[in-house]
Amino acid sequence: MNRTLKTIGLLVALALAGAISAAAQPANDPAIKATSVLGKVAEINASAGTLTVKTEAGSVVVVSTSEKTTFERMPPGETDRTKAVKTSLTELTVGDGVYARGYVAADRKSVPAQQIIVVSQSDIAKKQEKERMEWRRRGVSGIVASLNPAAKEVTITSRSIMGPSQSIIIPISDKTKVRRYPPDSIPKYADTKPSNFEEVKVGDQLRALGDKSADGTHVTPEEVVFGTFKIAGGTVTAIDAASNTITVNDLQTKKPMTIVLKPETVVRRFQMMMGGAGGGAPGGGGAPPQSQPPPSAQGPGGAGPGGPRPGGGMNMADLIERLPTISINEIKVGDMIIMSTLPGADQNRITAVSMLAGVEPLLQMIAQRQAAGGAPPRPQNVDLNSNFGGMFGGIGP
């Protein structure tokens, strides 16, 4: 029973993460075991009593059913089998997460299922929407500015588009759920690893869910998610839509850098707001697609990140999330971009988590604000990490 419950929990995590395409069948796919397969429904043949399941690593397995196969539907996130309800093959849909139990063939490409446990795609979407709204309403995000080991307090900063940064103190207790994104990855909540206060570093991007103080300067967190993100930028010199890569001239180093766009990468185009920095929302709109990394901004209302500040001015993360999403085909040579990444070993080839194109006006505005003594504003002198850290990059559930 315990093994089954753990498997159901893994199924939910997989369903939330989404499937990853692959051209070849992986040799050692952890989702395929001797007596089970875990994945998402890619195709259903009700007349033949079969369904094609695709694992997170890209393996494809044909699951055959019979009159002896049992079908159960579990709510997302549940591990209590008493919450399961009976279902059938005809009620499954493409995109549903499934755990098929049976003796897997030696070639790992088929399995006659004795039991199928399913988490429906629509239920997953409802749960994710509920979680997004909760993080928008009660979440804060920013870049780690300082640490207080004695009190186990993290101070993050969040910046409005024109105003000064705001500090938010987040004490971490034994009751706080702390998770960390691994390096060199597209951040997915399902891939986060258990962590603790001691692993948080200055400069990390961090998001916390909890109760805010009246002035928005303190949060008592139920959950904290963080990662060692880096903000990079440059001018686009080449675009290869076939390979989903963009070459830029790095803003700081002046050297070529290749940026890889994954299906989960969120690309937006910057647009100046109408009505001033503290006023209306940016032009355009559109909610972020569900397959993207979790949203980095909180919803309207409340002090601190994600809502109007006590002193006026909206949080930049909130503004960025409201910008319209675009495809790689809408990026042009000469565009200036900034992006977030979880750095890997190769600093000259990085994977974009989130990208913002057309940022020349934004960098010029920040450079103008920072210029001293009548010196000309230089966008290349803008510290990207201090100005944009925590403002976009996939922090959240």
Q: SSE order in H/E notation?
A: HEEEEEEEEEHEEEEEEEEEEHEEHH
Shape: globular
Just give the CATH class of the largest domain. Answer: Mainly Beta
Structural class: alpha+beta
CATH topology description of the largest domain = OB fold (Dihydrolipoamide Acetyltransferase, E2P)
Report strand %.
25-35%
The value of Rg in angstroms is: 23 Å
Percent of residues in helical segments? 10-25%
- Unreliable segments (pLDDT under 50, ≥5 consecutive)? 12-24, 274-313, 393-397
List the keywords:
397 residues, 5 helices, single chain, OB fold (Dihydrolipoamide Acetyltransferase, E2P), disordered C terminus, 3 domains, 9-stranded mixed beta sheet, globular, alpha+beta
Task: Describe it.
The chain has 5 helices and 21 strands. By secondary structure, the protein is an alpha+beta fold. It folds into 3 domains: 2-119, OB fold (Dihydrolipoamide Acetyltransferase, E2P), CATH 2.40.50; 128-227, Copper binding periplasmic protein CusF (OB fold (Dihydrolipoamide Acetyltransferase, E2P)), CATH 2.40.50; 230-388, Copper binding periplasmic protein CusF (OB fold (Dihydrolipoamide Acetyltransferase, E2P), Beta Barrel). The strands form 3 sheets. Strands 1, 2, 3, 4, 5, 6, 7, 8 and 9 form a 9-stranded mixed sheet that branches. A hairpin with a 5-residue loop joins strand 18 and strand 19. It is globular and about 80 Å long. The two termini are 28 Å apart. 39% of the residues are buried.
